[in-house]
Amino acid sequence: MTENVILTTLDFQAIAQILENWQIEFPQMGVLALLPEVELHAVNILQAACNEKNIPLCGAIFPALVTENGFITKGAWLLRLDKMPPMLMLTELNADDIDVGDLISAAVEEHLVQILNQQHKPTFFMMFFDAMLPNIASILDALYIRLSDRVRYAGVNAGSETFQPMPCLFDNDQIIGNGLLGLLLPDALSFVLQHAYAAPEHAMVATSSESNCINTIDWRSAFDVYQELIGTEYGIALTRENFYTYGAHFPFGILRANGEVVVRIPVAITEAGAIHCVGEVPENAMLALLRAPSVNDTQCIERLVDALSETGSLANASPLLTFYCAGRRMHLGETAASELLALKLQSGASILVGALSLGEIGAQESGYPTFHNAALVCKIWERI
Amino acid sequence: MNRELVLAILYDLTLTIGSEIRLKSLLTKVLQRFLYHTGFPVGVVLLDQVLADQGVSARLAAVIGDYALGQKIGQILTFPVNFVFGKVELIEDSGLALVLGSSGAHAYFLKLPVDDSVTIFLLSPKLPENTLPLTQIFQPVLRNLSKAIILCRSHEQETARLALDRDQARHDLIEALRKAERERAFQRSLMDSIPDLVWLKDPKGVYMACNPSFEKLYGKKEAEIIGKTDYDFVATDLAEANKAMDQLALAAKNPTIHEVWLSFVEGEYHGQFEITKTPMRSTNGDIIGVLGIAHDITEIKAAQIELTRHRNNLEQLVLERSEELKATYKRLSDTQFAMDSVGIGIHWVDARNGQFLYVNQVAAEMLGYSVDEMLQLNVADIDTYFSKNDFQTVTQDFRQQASVQFETVEITKYGETLPVEATIYYLPVNCLVSLCLFPILPNEKKLNWRSFMLKKQPKRRMSSKAHFWQTSVMKFAHL
User: Fold this and answer.
1) Do A256 and B28 touch (CB under 8 A)?
2) A267: which of A40, B101, B152, B174 lies 20 to 30 Å off by Cα?
3) Which residue of B has its CA nearest to A152?
């Protein structure tokens, strides 16, 4: 039996050969491709190879690819979907005059009728959003109200680590930005999400925020408060120049009663001192300044492995689809690779397949989808 | 207990509760926040709880996280009393999921009684991990939520009432606008269709509107005229004169009227116009402009001149005719006098039926009648020779002969007989018969007859004519 995931160079002939081998055994197959952003120009090679063989293609572009040996920026991960599942691709979700939640729900519901008739339960709605969309948390709220428990939710954000607009979602014919690529996977095995950031003792109030921008904290300039706290708590002299370097190490956390925190990594500051985060911050939310876990903190990988064990499929030594937050890698630096290796070893996966993500979606401990930063999202990639 | 964390959660929930004014939105948002904080996958809100025989009936008002259950929103369901009332409790009992008809195997639920009529349930298939005592920390916000629900409902009722009022007002406004538009269109159509020149200026003399007839005066379209003054179209002295007229009109209480000659740019027409200027006022009485209407009186004026000339001619003609009539009347009067004065009884008779049309005094008195009495009679009444019914036949011979003379006997008013010599003239043009009677009396009878007549006649003052008749008869009797 052929491997269902392959790391390949973006060479037409090489890709064509892989597809040919797969297609012999799985004539109804499709391909999920993960590319690093430096390979953006090569999407058309992938499209041409798939189109030549009439193989459905979907994929996304990320800052880098994940392997058990670390992160790479060359080539592409090709993941075989043995039978191409229902797929939806929506663009211009940043338009003012549309209800994105309704739009996505309606597109999903079109497929759900057919899927539920075929008894494909549970169905995973795997979402790849363009990270430039500022209101993904709100979109998830809307999706849960309408789609409810008819699907389970998981996903990641694609795009450039520079947070500059870039088309990052593609299928056989197009590559789009400000959109969503969705797959309805007929898979009983869960995605798991973990970050292991702990809630601190002290909290502060985001007294003015709009979407993913915190304007003021405790009625003062957000940057001034952030700068003061980091200086007081950790003795770090934060400036506008070194802000991005430290942001990943000291993210904000939105507190929940179940002890979990939703991480928001600050990525930019404005002239007025407002702080931009990856992901929405509700207005007047109570925020905590988090200290990112160190590499010696093994809680995250242990929890992930425990959660994967609950799926009962670790013994299969299957590939483990892993999305690793780019902000987390920034915090851990070179040692982030060690965390990946630990994951591979502890999970017993045959191989780690994945990409650096710019925001993660999961239903941690419940069915309610939440948008996170600094997290890992994993899934055993069995035959789908 | 992490005090900061509890405060953060309560703060978030309080803000969520306080930020909504619509019930559906409030319940959805609050339920979302409860699910977010607690990790429960399903949330349910019951409203309008009423204690019933079988338990508590309540309306399923909101559901998140259970699609099948969400299809029952709005339905009235019945719950065991202990599921609804009481304190905040975390209960391990799959009975609630069964009562609700949930598709999920939810063995645990957190009961959050908001007040006597509202309960929130959070359901989960397994007990979510929580570091905080969920049964204690939410109590304060539930009280707030109860008040917020009441406020939202009041707000929605008030909003619905206002919406009704607004819709009615909007409907009335639309109707009023339609009516105004119809009236405006009618007025515009009227203004455009009348041949008179119509215009409206503001108090400063700036044109605000005009009709197509006025456009011809300046040879410009209305759009080119509006916003301009007379100074833009005519010589300064004429513009000054117009302005003065406008000021007079503005100062006057009633419309002012004057006549001017206007020269049209379009068609080069030159005519005399009667201009009526009326001050226009807003509903609160402020002057908003001057309405001008110019009516072409060129033809009327010409007709008036001609009429005056004809009237003068007619007066002269009437004067002349009056003189002629006076002369004719005098001649007629003379003839009448002659007819009345002659000693012969003269009758004009309608040749078709014998009715007297004219009798002179002599003819009447000859038979003892007054003239008026006799004009009521027929020839047959005084002469047995004639008959009323066949007068035309009897007189046929007379007509052919133009005039006939014969002797006959007349009957007086008093039944006496009077032999007379009658002469009949036939006048074919007027279909008249002229009957002239001359009494034939022996001398002694003449006197007796006279005495008899005088006896029979009522005593009266003798008129000049009677005197004349008496005299005439006397003369006649002596013949």
Assistant:
1) no
2) A40
3) B65
More confident residue, B372 or B446: B372
Beta bridge partners of A234: none
Structure tokens at B266: 């379009």
pTM for the model: 0.65
- CA neighbor of A50 nearest in space, from A172, A182, A201: A172
Least reliable range by pLDDT among A107-121, A242-256, A323-337, B23-37: A107-121
- In the numeric block, the tokens 């508590």 are attached to B56
CB–CB contact B65 A368 (8 Å): yes
Give the model's confidence band at A322: pLDDT under 50 very low, under 70 low, under 90 confident, else very high. Answer: very high
Give the Cα-Cα-Cα angle A125, A126, A127 (nearest 5 degrees). Answer: 110
A368 neighbourhood in chain B, CB within 8 Å: 35-36, 39, 41, 65
Distance between CA atoms of residues B477 and B479, nearest Å: 5
Nearest to A176 by CA among A184, A185, A167: A167
Going by DSSP bridges, is the β-strand pair A180-185/A175-176 parallel, antiparallel, or unpaired?
unpaired
Side by side, the strands of the sheet bearing B432-439 are B356-359, B345-350, B432-439, B417-427, B403-411
How close A303 comes to chain B (CA, Å)? 14
For the question of an ipTM over 0.90, the answer is no
How many angstroms separate the CA atoms of A107 and B17, rounded? 32
Local confidence band at B467 (pLDDT 50, 70, 90 cut-offs): very low
d(CA B34, CA B19): 15
